[in-house]
Description:
The complex is a heterodimer.
Chain A: E1 3-7, E2 10-14, E3 19-26, E4 30-38, E5 43-49, E6 56-58, E7 61-66, E8 71-76, E9 85-93, E10 99-102, E11 106-111
Parallel strand pairs in A: 2-11
Antiparallel strand pairs in A: 1-3, 3-8, 4-5, 4-9, 6-7, 7-8, 9-10, 9-11
Chain B: E1 5-7, E2 10-13, E3 19-24, E4 31-38, E5 42-50, E6 53-57, E7 64-68, E8 74-78, E9 87-94, E10 102-103, E11 107-111
Parallel strand pairs in B: 2-11
Antiparallel strand pairs in B: 1-3, 3-8, 4-5, 4-9, 5-6, 7-8, 9-10, 9-11
Amino acid sequence: EDKVVQSPLSLVVHEGDTVTLNCSYEVTNFRSLLWYKQEKKAPTFLFMLTSSGIEKKSGRLSSILDKKELFSILNITATQTGDSAVYLCAVEDRQGAQKLVFGQGTRLTINP
Amino acid sequence: DSGVTQTPKHLITATGQRVTLRCSPRSGDLSVYWYQQSLDQGLQFLIHYYNGEERAKGNILERFSAQQFPDLHSELNLSSLELGDSALYFCASSVGVETEAFFGQGTRLTVV
Lengths: 112, 112
């Protein structure tokens, strides 16, 4: 069965700190890995990673995928209180049809 | 605003009843996905439609069904509702079957 595990489950840091969120996966037929940010309601798309070793960057957020070791990390530098959210990692499994398997999320709290 | 519209925003209904949740995808998107998010289970993939046809099924109960109409909007029907069906139901859409999905704001279903 496909599985996505995120760590830590919860993280509390001070504004300005740098954080690293982890996502490991076991998927029969890997196609891509996606990161989402969920604040109050709908998850918001952050990154899609398909190739190993290529960093995707957007402002203070960056992510990289290691297909050999089956994990991805999401880095946030110079954190701000607005970064407080649940960060979700999802893996796209083909198996002849597309579906996303989500991890349980990391709840990130940034204290001023 | 992701461009994905879900109605209603909130729904309270009694056990044993049937409800219909509606989703309008972003303009131009052919794929619609349904997800259930409950406190103890995280985000669970239910079903995926592409251009009116079912493409993938996840952890969807037999009491639940969905369809995508010619105008590409989708409905998720939940019947014989149980207390455990209380959750946030998200719809997401994407252009194709191999592109990132954008989420609606969700419908919060409470079964009493």
